[in-house]
Write a structure and sequence with these properties.
This protein is of the alpha+beta class and 289 residues long. It has seven helices and nine strands, in the order H-E-H-H-E-H-H-E-E-E-E-E-E-E-H-H. It is 26% helix and 17% strand.
Length: 289
C-alpha cells in the first residue's frame, strides 16, 4: 500500500506529467499467477492467433480476459492501486475496457504520438485530467527496444496540433520519456497525454494487460465486465466497477464513498462541520485590484 504522502506525490505527477510509473505494483506471487493465466489464455486461442498473424496482424488481443481466470478480476481493484484510481478518476470510478495484448516483433501498431480521445466531442481534455485513464500492467521484463511506452510529459495540457508527431527527430528528443518496465510494474496515464508504443525491434513478443477506467455514467465496452455478474452481488465496489445498475440510483449518483454507511465518528464529524459552517461568519474577501 502507498502512504498518504506517496499517493499525493503520485497524483501530482499524474496531473502534471500525464502519466506515472508504478514499479513493483504486483508482488512476485501475483506476477506468477498473472503470467500463468495469461499464457493459458493465449494457448486456448492459439489457432485464431496464428490465423490472424498469417493475415499480417501486428498485435493480438485475447478475448474476454475477465472470464479467463479470476486473477484478472482481482487486478481490477488492487488494494495498492485502488486509492490512486479514486484520486485520479473520482468516486464514480468504473471499468471501461480490458485488453490482454500480444505485440509481435516489428513496427508499432499505434499512431505516432497521439491522444486516445482527441476527437471526442463535448469535453475540454486539457482541463479534464480524470476523464479516462489507462493502466498498463506488465508481468514480464521488457527490453528497451521491445515496444515500450513513450510519452511527451505534460502534453495533455497542450493546445491541439501543438506537437507535430511526424517530426523525424521527435523520437530522439529529450522531451520524450520512455518507460522500460520490469515484471510487476504498471503505468497509469491520462489517455489525452501524447503517447505511443514504440517499434518492437526485438525477436520477443511484448505482453501486457490494459485496464481502462472512466466514470460510471460512461458507456463501457463489452470487455469492461465479466459475463457472470451475479457472483459480485455481495461486493458493491465491484458492482460499481462493472457497471451494475442499482434500483433507484441515478447513473450520475454512483459513488464509491457512498457505498459504505458512515461510522459514528464520521457522522459526528460531519454534523460538527455543518454546524460550524452555519454559525461561523464567512471571511469577507478583499476587493480586487
Amino acid at each position: 500500500m502507498y502512504s498518504s504522502d506517496n499517493l499525493l506525490d503520485l497524483k501530482l505527477q499524474f496531473d502534471s506529467q500525464g502519466y506515472v510509473h508504478l514499479p513493483g505494483l504486483l508482488d512476485s506471487a501475483l506476477v506468477e499467477r498473472v503470467r500463468e493465466a495469461f499464457f493459458a489464455a493465449r494457448d486456448r486461442h492459439a489457432a485464431t492467433t496464428e490465423q490472424s498473424l498469417r493475415t499480417g496482424a501486428r498485435f493480438i488481443d485475447l478475448p474476454s480476459i475477465l472470464d479467463a481466470d479470476p486473477v484478472f478480476v482481482d487486478l481490477v481493484d488492487l488494494p495498492a492501486l485502488f486509492p490512486l484510481l479514486r484520486m485520479t478518476v473520482g468516486e464514480d470510478l468504473a471499468l471501461n475496457e480490458t485488453i490482454a495484448r500480444l505485440f509481435y516483433p516489428g513496427p508499432t501498431f499505434t499512431s505516432p504520438f497521439h491522444s486516445d480521445v482527441v476527437n471526442m466531442l463535448g469535453v475540454n481534455h486539457a482541463h479534464t485530467p480524470n476523464f479516462l485513464v489507462k493502466l498498463h500492467i506488465f508481468f514480464e521484463d521488457l527490453l528497451p527496444e521491445q515496444g515500450c511506452l513513450a510519452f511527451i510529459p505534460g502534453s495533455q495540457h497542450f493546445p491541439p496540433a501543438y506537437v507535430n508527431p511526424h517530426r523525424p527527430t521527435l523520437a530522439s528528443s529529450s522531451a520524450v520519456a520512455r518507460v522500460v518496465p520490469r515484471a510487476g510494474d504498471a503505468v497509469l496515464f491520462n489517455t489525452h497525454v501524447l503517447h505511443m508504443a514504440e517499434d518492437n525491434r526485438t525477436d520477443q513478443v511484448r505482453t501486457s494487460l490494459i485496464y481502462t477506467y472512466g466514470h460510471f455514467w460512461m458507456k463501457a465496452k463489452p470487455s469492461g465486465a465479466p459475463s457472470d455478474l451475479t457472483r459480485f452481488a455481495a461486493s458493491p465496489q465491484r458492482q460499481q466497477l462493472f457497471g451494475v445498475d442499482l434500483p433507484g440510483v441515478s447513473h450520475f449518483a454512483r459513488r464509491l464513498d457512498w457505498l459504505t454507511p458512515p461510522t459514528a465518528v464520521q457522522r459526528l464529524q460531519n454534523t460538527g462541520e455543518r454546524i460550524a459552517h452555519r454559525l461561523l461568519p464567512f471571511k469577507k474577501m478583499p476587493p480586487r485590484a
